[in-house]
């Protein structure tokens, strides 16, 4: 159990969602408070366009959970996210000739290899968020996620490298710094799907192959996991706002009413809706209410979601046979709340599909909304913090940076030293950008 109270900040195109969480006595993540603030018009397609109003929204969301924070003299740290089409995820391979081929590969050697792999990437783009190992190969031995103990002359390391536009990253940091309070300050920044996957995907799904689809209001993030590791990710400039805009035009209603219709009466499968079902839209300035067909509303929603499902299937097909991802598709994000969306995606993609609900314990002070798929990223950001602490390597030669290192915390936490194999497994599964070059500011 850890007593640290950590804040997850999901900064999206419609809302900033904030949660405060910690590990309970059973070692499970417990959310004790949540809050959100509107960012409509301040963030477009995942990119900040109004610094002042975005900072104010972050501060407002933090204020809503501040009552649950314990101790006036305690500093609280947060994990935040970065998204948008400027994010680049690509494979990278590093090969090294070993000095002594008869000596067993050590975990220190693996970490040195990871650090060396960052250098050429940083020369091209100084904003390196993550260097995620996906496999190692020693000489002609089979590729593995655990080469420690193997012997050979040459070792090859394959990574997924996540980089961001430095200017977009700087804007996010500027907003976060402006929103810091006396007791809430400093944190790490992570690529959104890495956090969301922690909250809604099981280890078995990541092992067998799964596609996580996070449908936000401005963007849709697609991340593919196989053999427990991230093998590809992309961000589409396609979000729930497109559905709202189609409703506005198709039903001739205001943007505000279009959003309300989508969230309250929208459905992904139109044939399930009675053709006679009608909802009344309030008139403007005393005018008569306008009747709207719920069937027509569902048709609009369904057609847009079919388009998205087809795009996602095309993205999956670039990686390999969609049927090879045995765990299918898991949906999260705000649009995942639409009724029957999983059934529609399953029909279009021919893959098993479910809606991902955050796997978390709810404290009595927290709202029921944390069980919503739209809170997957915020909750995952808290979980990532604890996993990052757990990846600490207890050797004199290697001491990783943690979120709290800027305040003198070592990240070792006084834990007993686990075995090398257990340590390495955690590193491979959850290694995050945890130094100044990789996401900490």
From TrEMBL:
Just give the chief location class. membrane
SHS2 domain ranges (all copies): 6-200
What Gene Ontology terms for biological process does this UniProt record contain?
A: cell division
> Where does the protein end up?
Cell membrane
Annotated segments matching region Disordered: 396-418
Entry membrane topology: Peripheral membrane protein
- The residues forming the signal peptide are none
Family, as annotated: Belongs to the FtsA/MreB family.
Annotated protein name in UniProt? Cell division protein FtsA
Which gene underlies this protein? Answer: ftsA
């Amino acid at each position: 159990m850890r007593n640290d109270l950590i804040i997850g900040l999901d900064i999206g195109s419609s809302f900033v969602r904030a949660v405060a969480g910690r590990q309970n006595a059973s070692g499970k993540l417990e959310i004790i408070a949540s809050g959100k603030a509107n960012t409509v018009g301040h963030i477009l397609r995942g990119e900040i366009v109004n610094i002042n109003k975005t900072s104010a929204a972050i501060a407002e969301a933090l204020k809503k959970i501040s009552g649950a924070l314990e101790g006036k003299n305690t500093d609280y740290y947060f994990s935040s996210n970065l998204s948008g089409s400027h994010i680049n995820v690509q494979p990278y391979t590093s090969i090294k000739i070993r000095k002594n081929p008869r000596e067993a590969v050590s975990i220190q050697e693996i970490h040195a290899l990871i650090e060396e792999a960052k250098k050429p990437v940083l020369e091209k783009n100084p904003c390196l968020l993550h260097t995620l190992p996906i496999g190692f190969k020693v000489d002609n031995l089979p590729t593995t996620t655990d080469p420690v103990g193997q012997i050979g002359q040459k070792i090859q390391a394959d990574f997924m490298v996540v980089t961001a536009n430095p200017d977009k990253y700087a804007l996010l940091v500027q907003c976060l710094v402006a929103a810091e309070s006396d007791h809430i300050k400093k944190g790490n920044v992570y690529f959104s799907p890495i956090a969301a996957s922690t909250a809604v995907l099981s280890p078995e799904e990541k092992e067998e192959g799964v596609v996580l689809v996070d449908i936000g209001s401005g963007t849709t993030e697609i991340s593919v996991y196989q053999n427990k590791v991230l093998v590809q990710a992309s961000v589409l400039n396609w979000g729930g706002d497109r559905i709202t805009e189609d409703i506005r035009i198709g039903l001739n209603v205001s943007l505000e009413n279009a959003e309300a219709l989508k969230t309250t009466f929208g459905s992904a499968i139109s044939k399930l809706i009675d053709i006679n079902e009608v909802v009344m839209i309030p008139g403007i300035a005393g005018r008569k209410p306008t009747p709207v067909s719920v069937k027509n509303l569902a048709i609009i929603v369904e057609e847009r979601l079919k388009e998205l499902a087809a795009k996602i299937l095309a993205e999956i097909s670039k990686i390999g046979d969609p049927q090879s991802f045995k765990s299918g598709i898991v949906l999260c994000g705000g649009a995942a709340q639409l009724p029957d969306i999983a059934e529609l995606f399953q029909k279009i993609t021919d893959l098993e599909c479910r809606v991902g609900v955050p796997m978390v314990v709810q404290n009595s002070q927290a709202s029921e909304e944390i069980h919503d798929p739209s809170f997957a990223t915020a909750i995952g950001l808290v979980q990532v913090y604890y996993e990052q602490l757990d990846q600490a390597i207890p050797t004199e030669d290697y001491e990783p940076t943690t979120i709290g290192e800027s305040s003198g915390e070592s990240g070792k936490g006084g834990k007993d030293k686990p075995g090398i194999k257990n340590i390495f497994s955690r590193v491979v599964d959850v290694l995050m950008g945890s130094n100044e070059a990789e996401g900490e500011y």
